[in-house]
């Protein structure tokens, strides 16, 4: 089981958000946004921010850092390390299963991820046998596209928020647009948002996330 940072907005949470960080970050990365995501009368939410395992990352000279899988080269698919991708998918699934064991059903769980973490979140969410409450795919891209289309569950008709910076030099906007297109083709209810930012999250985006979570 991955180590996690957990924040409960009130006692006895009735829903959960599992949020995967980007390359080189950790579970504390999005911890500060939690207060900005709540609204008057919001239910008790458990936010779970896991730490990816530390591993060598080829494009960073083999330096060890928290990463969901190795990136060997920057290309349009970024899907070189299938073994690492599958490992992180299994670890993320463990976190979903733990929430259901703690009494929060799948339909009350949102899976979220930024950049590399978002790529893993997409893979896991689309393979659920019971539809999740939703998926947040932030500044991210598709992995294993052919495998995903073959393995996607019939329960993949849940709400998805795809958000991306139009000035992103790390994950170009076209890759985010491809995410939105592919998820629509797989039956998801996709809400697309773009912002005049680079590879980051803005306050406007956080406000939109709050509105989407409330819905």
Q: What this model shows, in words?
A:
This protein has 215 residues and is of the alpha/beta class. The protein contains six helices and nine strands; from the N terminus they run ββαβββαβαβαβαβα. The chain has helices at residues 34-37, 82-101, 116-125, 145-151, 173-185, 203-214, and strands at residues 4-8, 15-20, 45-50, 54-57, 63-66, 109-114, 134-138, 159-165, 189-195. Strands 1-3-2-6-7-8-9 form a seven-stranded mixed beta sheet, with helices on both faces. Strands 4-5 form a two-stranded antiparallel sheet. Helix 3 (116-125) links the parallel strand 6 (109-114) and strand 7 (134-138). Helix 2 packs across helix 3 (116-125). The longest helix is centred in the middle third of the chain and has 20 residues, at 82-101. The chain is globular and about 45 Å long. The mean pLDDT is 94.
**Overall pLDDT, averaged?**
94
Nearest-angstrom radius of gyration? Answer: 16 Å
Q: What class do helices, strands and sheet pairing give? A: alpha/beta
Shape: globular
N- to C-terminal distance: 31 Å
What is the N-to-C succession of helices and strands?
A: EEHEEEHEHEHEHEH
Low-confidence stretches: none
* Helix fraction bin: 25-40%
Give the number of DSSP strands.
Answer: 9
Topology diagram in text:
Elements: E1 4-8, E2 15-20, H1 34-37, E3 45-50, E4 54-57, E5 63-66, H2 82-101, E6 109-114, H3 116-125, E7 134-138, H4 145-151, E8 159-165, H5 173-185, E9 189-195, H6 203-214
Parallel strand pairs: 2-3, 2-6, 6-7, 7-8, 8-9
Antiparallel strand pairs: 1-3, 4-5
């Amino acid at each position: 089981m991955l180590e996690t940072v957990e924040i409960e907005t009130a006692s006895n949470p009735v829903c959960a958000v599992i949020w995967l960080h980007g390359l080189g970050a950790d579970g504390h990365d999005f911890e500060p946004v939690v207060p900005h995501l709540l609204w008057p009368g919001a239910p008790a939410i458990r936010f779970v921010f896991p730490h990816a395992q530390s591993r060598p990352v080829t494009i960073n000279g083999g330096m060890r850092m928290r990463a969901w899988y190795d990136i060997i080269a920057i290309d349009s698919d970024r899907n070189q390390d299938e073994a690492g991708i599958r490992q992180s998918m299994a670890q993320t699934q463990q976190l979903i299963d733990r929430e259901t064991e703690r009494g929060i059903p799948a339909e009350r769980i949102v899976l979220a991820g930024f950049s590399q973490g978002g790529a893993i979140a997409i893979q896991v969410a689309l393979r659920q046998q019971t539809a999740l409450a939703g998926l947040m795919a932030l500044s991210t891209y598709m992995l294993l596209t052919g495998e995903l289309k073959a393995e996607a569950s019939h329960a993949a008709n849940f709400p998805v928020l795809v958000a991306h910076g139009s000035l992103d030099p790390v994950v170009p906007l076209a890759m985010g647009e491809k995410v939105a297109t592919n998820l629509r083709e797989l039956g998801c209810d996709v809400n697309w948002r773009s912002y005049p930012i680079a590879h980051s999250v803005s306050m406007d985006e956080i406000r939109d996330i709050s509105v989407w979570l409330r819905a």
